[in-house]
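Trying the structure run again after the queue cleared.
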Amino acid sequence: MTAPRPHPPLSALAPSEVWDRLDPLAPDLALNPDGLGTLPYGQLKGPGFERLCYELLLAQGLMPRFFGRSGQADYGVDIIVEQAQTLSVFQCKNLAAPPSWQAISQAVQTFESDWLHHAGLPRPTRFVYCCPHPLDEQKLGATWTEFRQAFIQRTGIELHFWDRHSLDAQLRSLPVIVAGVFSASYAEHFCPHSHDWRHAPWIRVQRNQARHAVVQRFLQQHDADKLYIADHEAELFAEILSQHGVLVIRGLPGSGKTSLTLALASRQRHLYYASLRDANDVDKLWQSALQRLKLPSVFFLDDCHVNLTLAGALLERLAPEWRKGQLHLVLGLRDHPTDPNAGLDDTPDWLRELQDNQQVLNLKLDRQRTRAVAEYLRQDLIGLSAARLDALHHGSSGDLLLLDELLSNIRAPSELDTLQLAGVLPKLHQRYFGARTRLPTVQRLAALAQFDLTPQADYFTGHWQDQEKPRLAGLITELFSPPRYQFLHASLAELVLHALIQLEAPEATRTHQVRQHTVDSVLRYLDYLRAQQSGADAVATLHLVLRTRLKLCSPDEDASLKAQLLAAPTVIALVREQLAMVPFGMFLVSMVVLERALHTAQSDYVELLCARLHLLFNPVSDDAKHLGMITIGSGLAALRRFAPAHWEALAQQLPPAAFMQWILDQGGIMELFQVLQFSPAEFRIALLAQLDAAQAERLLNKTISAGRSIGTLNLAMRELNKTDPTLLAGLEQAIGAPGWMRLIDANGTLFELFHILQYATPEFRAALLAQLDAAQAERLLNKTISAGRSIGTLNLAMRELNKTDPTLLAGLEQAIGAPGWMRLIDANGTLFELFHILQYATPEFRAALLAQLDAAQAERLLNKAITAGHSIGTLNWAMRELLSHTEPTLLARLEQAIGASGLMRLIGVNGAVFKLFKVLEHAIPEFPTALLAQLDAQGTEALAQQASWLDLNLSQAALSRGAHSPTVAWLQRALTTRIAALHVAELEGLDFKEACNGLTFAWRERPDLRQALAAQLWRILPPPAQWPQAGEDLAVIRLVLHLACDPCLAQDDAIRLQQASLDRLADADLAQLDTLPLFLLLWNLSALTFERCTPGAFACAMPPALIDRLIAIVQVRALRRAPKKEHLFEMALAGVLQLLVPAQAPRLRQALAPLRSMSQSLQNLALAHTFVPAFFALKGIALIDRGRVLTAVVKEDLLAKLQAYEQQGPALAFLRKVLI
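Done. Tokens:
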């Protein structure tokens, strides 16, 4: 027998590679139906037919994977499907003519010969031949039948056809595939019950003519590769969607929300888009989404700020689907640039809940984003000076659309030195409108559209001049129901308005003329709405104008323009006339504007606000009642801020009895909490005194019958617990533990029970838990499972309860029971949730829970963990906790249930070398041997090859410190080949964290490459503009700062590295960075300055503004309750700041004053650390401790620590001199 031919290793395409093969934005065929008998399969060609078959398998709930990469043989197989213990393979042939039996048998023989015999690949259970022609086995003849039976008997593999009849039958019930592949028209005609597919609110984002101008613009930018996406935003987007199914993306106008979401969502699944501007029927949005669930899809609802109530309603309607992972939902909304000190905004409960659950991605407009986008779009703008970057950033106000317009009119970086808007406007006018002709109606439309308005088309009827409207092609979209005009972007409308005004006004008066034209245009349009539509529409339009920040004027100019609007007699009359329909949030933003503009009309709006509050008790429409109820918090916050005397006298102005009656009539428990949260203390007490048992019962019943979510109730409780725990206790008693439990039982799940217990007063917790019987616990458990809610954060609530009230936690564990907990973990969790719940459970409960874990459950949890793709980085912490606080037999039982082979599967897919090392470190003694036995030499090398540079860097450092053991020796062997094969080119094109770790790893492990690494430094590191903004991500640069002290790196590069780090720190969010990495970053930057940049001097290491921010961080953190080690690092941070700026010692001493009582214990703790943190911590302690800190004994100890450092440069030598 001939030996099998050698073949390169083969593998199916991973899910992440599928989109490269499919192109998620590929257009449909844009065909109109030509008869209803079948579909035009022939026009799909080969790749299109493969895509069709792939999507059919997806619609069956399977996980198909394309087989064979470019340059690899596919052995007659295009798609494979693995399911349980079966493997099906599919060959897709889109032939021009029906195949003969000989052609089909030849395909089968090729598969048998190449796949089964020569390639040695796994034996499938089914071979499916897909061909869009009628294939009738009887017509193929007896010869085919004999061939087929012989093949099945010989191989044990079934043979099936997907022919035209089979394809038609499947696709008639799948309009989502027919529309995406052929056309929406075909879906309507070919698929029953799909007659309105083309007019549905959700549109598939594909390269066809888009219904929305913003989608068309995205497609153009996408295909031209003009979309900048920061790595950390892409990672966060994918992580939130995969874990929770719902994501909110928000930012100011021009922050790139829509384009970023469309770009990132299209990487994930099929993508559908709708905007609340023209799709405001929740039922249609809901039903249309349900029709499109057969394929994994992301639904992006844009412009949610237009109506947050409708957005919340859709979120609730689709909750069963997104909780079960049937769809992903992204909600895009615009931030409103209001005064951060204004207090409460109109954020609804659903959005607050998502914010609290960290499901909101906030986009910022700052200098670094401007730099990153400019450098991405224009290579000649890389490395802009600070002055030129400022010119570009301020010229565009950070707005990405304005930035794009500016870049289109800048030919060379030198033009930024004289950049003026006045010079750009004529070019923009020529670009969009050609000849410099006045366009008065376009001007009126732009004046309104700059506030993101979509004005009624009837308003402009009769005003269009000849050829005026055609010139707007590409800039506006015509919306319907009712007919309206929408500009491509509000920022572009503002730019167009300035360009048109410039034609008729001298440059010196352009800004003034724009302001006057804007005010006049808005007032006229409000008058039109008031007369022709409704006063309520006019109020809603005014509210949107007030909450939209203009970009081409200063904040003061913007406030002045809006104050002029608010002070207009017709506007005051409108507000007075429509007072019942004015949301309290509009008063809040109005008075912020008037205060900034120092306008006397503020007193008018205080009076109107008071009148609006009194109006709560007058007969009004149901809509007005609802509006007042959902925004009452904003009204009370506005009164507190702008009319404190009126707010303090609330009890006299608004009788508490009447207010309680209003809450009883219009609201429920949630509204009661909101009113109490934002009322003055005297009024709170008086209002709560009105709440008797019957009224509390009534509020409970209303909240229960309304089915209101109580997911944010714990947030209000948390605030009340901080500000007025006595009041919270009174409220708990007024409602009573039985009432609370009834509310949780009816409207909540286990999550709400845990969170309410977390923030309740200590006395009430026990009373509430005493109400939980077995039947209620079972109902809550079942609802939590049915809702499909991720339990990834449940362990955090358990951790808090374990800290504050372990007895209560034990009672809660017993009430739900170990079988119930395991059922919940099995249904809604993965192996990670099991570990983390065990980590924070009480010791007694751990044994009971583990006793419920059988082999089948362990396998299911393991498979779900692998599918979810979560990092195993936290697994070792749970194992360490279990090993140190639990009987070793329990950890052994857990390890045995999972099995060494199972855990190695998880590590192989989701982990790498360092994670494996940490898992082995905290395993029971027998487990490492069993685990390592799962790896052969090939597996060892594969694990090292798939490791990230971060993983390799941590691994090698940990191994060098670890005691010698078989585990350490095995892991060191695993890394040897990887280190030897390292090339500098491997480090190019990485993200920031990987680049820093890869460079550090290579510098340490391969000294022979240091010259080459130094020469390629700025090819390895991303451009500084792309360095992360978050302090916790930026802190990794300290690794590179440390190696930059090596003379192998050119001094010019060291100086550039120092300056880039300082520039980035100026904009970084340092408040979110832990104190230890912040201290280490500061020290490494200071040491680099001392040794390479300004030799022998620390003084100029930090700019004064950065020093002030760092001192403020020390001050804030010294006041908080935190573990002693955290306060120790605050001392170290203060110590290094004192070294840099000795004159700031008095401020640092004052900042550290709250820690004076623990100075002695911190001294002892400091000496447990290595030299640098210990030295600076003791220097910080010496600022507040009048006794001797650096005694002779302490100095001797520190000097011994210093000697342990292998490398001691000039900076450490200087510290040694200071110490001596």
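The radius of gyration is 34 Å. Worth checking whether this holds up in the mutant runs.
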